[in-house]
From TrEMBL, chain A:
Heme b 1; low-spin binds at H122, H411. It comes from Pelagibacterium lacus. This is cytochrome-c oxidase. The gene is ccoN. One of its GO terms (biological process) is oxidative phosphorylation. Its EC number is 7.1.1.9. It is found in: Cell membrane. Belongs to the heme-copper respiratory oxidase family. Its cofactor is Cu(2+); heme; heme b. Heme b 2; high-spin binds at H409.
From TrEMBL, chain B:
Pfam families: FixQ. InterPro entries: Cbb3-typ_cyt_oxidase_comp. The chain crosses the membrane at residues 15-33. This is Cbb3-type cytochrome c oxidase subunit 3. It comes from the Bacteria. Keywords: Membrane, Transmembrane, Transmembrane helix.
Length: 550, 54
């Protein structure tokens, strides 16, 4: 990690680590009688580890030659490692909480392992740990390639990567101790939130400065999506987390917004987190890695621009569909419905653009599991955005809201779209990053593909069934105008579906473990690439007959 | 003048509509402006060129 850093840059790293260590020590002392103190100590311990590493490597040979003539891929490599570690952690927690719903005794009677504390560790682990690291790692890779410029900094990419992971660790460990703001996808408390702002602003500046160095006249569309992701997430995060701590020695804070305004801001945040965290950045991957892997340009660049602005304009207004039939003014709910339905247009523009890119190349999809990951992701993106628009309509929402249908919808998006496009992108980028001619095992990529697809389908179908059954049972009346089913009756009806979803999630988790092993082995001893072809995709145009399963 | 709920609703229901339509028109003009065609074609092909060095 320090190999490409000069002595002054290594000193800079040490100063930053010492500064964070000091902040951690302040938290530890101020919060000595509070869970905050535990987090302070955790920060101190992590910083001591980092310091030890940096001092150990301080006298390693410095880089020679002009670094601006090579891309800086070390942060991407480490980012991919983090991505896979978080994938396994987050998906394991998902399987665990899914199993708890079927077999509640898996709570083991401990406070930290109750459903309420484990569930956010699953959502944070997969969305921010797995998704966020994948976004940061690939954005560093894509911005350099599309700009034909090296990252505008040698220390700041590490600060962004490690700073972001520190945030994720504080978030997840906090949940086990009961530290939470109880706002969905925004659970971490005030000190972690402030830290994320610092990290995120550094990320934005790094990204903009790299773009400013570009040698290409036009900024490729993937960078627009990554930038929208960075800028909008900063805006959402700050507005939704304006909170006042009880005291500087307490982890607990209170949000400044009240009542229905708080609810609206939370879901303006929550739905745009889906839009700009779980969609925009992953569309950036789609628009770069899919053409790259298929070795043909995107079907329509103009369509990609219209799609981009459509998504950024429309998504902002869709959040209120989470608050149908609440105290939120009716016209705001209707606004959310309208924009949610309109969103179908730019969403299908992107999904269609991806699929049309492959016209005349479908034999590659048959033969190449990596490309198939991305194609299935685009199909799930199209399906999920259709479903989302549909579920946002008030009468449909009356049936679907608070049921497992919502959970099925989210997982069709998260497993089918977000995770599959990530795995497709990783399998595309990993061989070139470690100068390999291909993945360690193409068979394992194939295994991973079928595990993921089977897991996603089982999960989503289980939740569709379960959700609709649940929704219908809740609204069934007897002739005497009383509810026909008690809540426990609905739980009994859910039981087989809960077992099925656990199985679906387990298959997906096994797939992620297979992928991690394959990526690790590729990095350690994959087939070595010819120097000239180090960075070209494996499926090159001159390849007349791609071998099966490549 | 008091800025109350009604004022904000009136503003967002009128100007909110206009500025979104204006931005949509601006984006369409940018996208379909004939002189931009070459730039976009170059951009979509640029990522397929060899990319192992800046």
């Amino acid at each position: 990690m320090v190999a490409q850093l000069t002595k002054p840059e290594r000193q800079e790293c040490i100063v930053i680590v010492l500064a964070v260590l000091a902040l951690g020590a302040i938290l530890a002392i101020a919060g000595i009688r509070d869970p905050l103190g535990v987090h302070g100590l955790l920060i101190v311990a992590l910083c001591l580890g980092a310091l030890l590493y940096l001092l150990n490597r301080y006298n390693d040979p410095e880089p020679t030659g002009d670094r601006s003539t090579v891309y800086y891929d070390d942060p991407t490599r480490v980012g991919i490692a983090f991505t896979m570690v978080w994938a396994i952690f987050g998906m394991f927690m998902g399987v665990w909480v899914a199993a708890q719903l079927a077999w509640p005794e898996l709570e083991f009677g401990q406070a930290w392992s109750g459903f309420g504390r484990l569930r956010p560790s699953h959502t944070t682990g997969v969305i921010f740990g797995f998704g966020g690291n994948a976004l940061i790692a690939t954005s560093f890779h894509v911005v350099q390639r599309t700009s034909r410029a090296r990252l505008a900094g040698n220390v700041s990419p590490w600060f962004v990567l490690f700073g972001y992971n520190l945030f994720c660790i504080l978030a997840v460990t906090g949940y086990f101790m009961g530290i939470t703001q109880s706002k969905e996808y925004a659970e971490p408390e005030w000190y972690a939130d402030i830290w994320l702002v610092v990290v995120w602003v550094t990320y934005l500046i790094l990204y903009l400065r790299t773009l400013a160095r570009r040698k290409e006249p036009h900024i490729y569309v993937s960078n627009w999506y990554y930038l929208a992701f960075i800028v909008v997430v900063a805006m959402l995060h700050i507005v939704n987390n304006i909170a006042v701590p009880v005291s500087l020695g307490s982890a607990k804070s209170y949000i400044v917004w009240a009542g229905v305004q708080d609810a609206m801001i939370q879901w303006w945040y929550g739905h745009n987190a889906v839009a700009f965290f779980l969609t925009a950045g992953f569309l950036a991957m789609l628009y770069y890695y899919l053409p790259k892997r298929a070795n043909r340009p995107i079907f329509s660049y103009r369509l990609s621009i219209l799609g981009f602005w459509g998504i950024t304009f429309f998504y902002m207004w869709a959040g209120s569909h989470h608050l149908h039939y609440t105290a939120l003014p009716h016209w705001v709910q209707t606004l959310g419905v309208t924009f949610s339905v309109m969103l179908l247009v730019p969403s299908w523009a992107s999904a269609g653009n991806a699929l049309m890119t492959l016209r005349g190349a479908w034999h590659k999809v048959r033969d190449d599991a990596t490309l198939r990951f991305m194609v299935v992701a685009a199909i799930f993106y199209g399906l999920t955005t259709f479903e989302g628009s549909f579920m946002a309509i008030r009468p449909v929402n009356a049936l679907s809201h608070y049921t497992d249908w919502t959970v099925g919808h989210v997982h069709a998006g998260a497993l089918g779209w977000v995770a599959l496009i990530t795995f497709g992108s990783l399998y595309t980028v990993v061989p070139s990053l470690w100068k390999r001619s291909g993945m360690y095992s193409n068979k394992l990529v194939e295994v991973h593909f079928w595990l993921s697809l089977a897991g996603t389908l089982i999960y989503v179908f289980a939740m569709w069934n379960s959700g609709i059954v649940q929704g219908l049972m809740w609204r069934t009346y007897t002739e005497g105008n009383t509810l026909a089913y008690s809540f426990v009756d609905t739980l009994v009806a859910m039981y087989p579906y809960y077992i099925a979803r656990t199985l679906g999630g387990l298959l997906f988790l096994i797939g992620a473990i297979v992928a991690t092993y394959n990526i690790y082995m590729t990095a350690k001893r994959g087939p070595v690439a010819d120097e000239d072809r180090a960075d070209t995709p494996i499926l090159v145009a001159s390849d007349p007959q791609p071998t099966p399963a490549e | 003048m008091d800025i109350d709920h009604g004022t904000l609703v009136a503003f967002s229901k009128s100007w909110g509509l206009f500025y979104l339509i204006a931005m949509a028109i601006a984006v369409c003009i940018y996208t379909f402006w004939p002189r931009n065609r070459k730039k976009f074609t170059d951009a979509k092909n640029s990522i397929l060129r060899k990319d192992d060095r800046p």
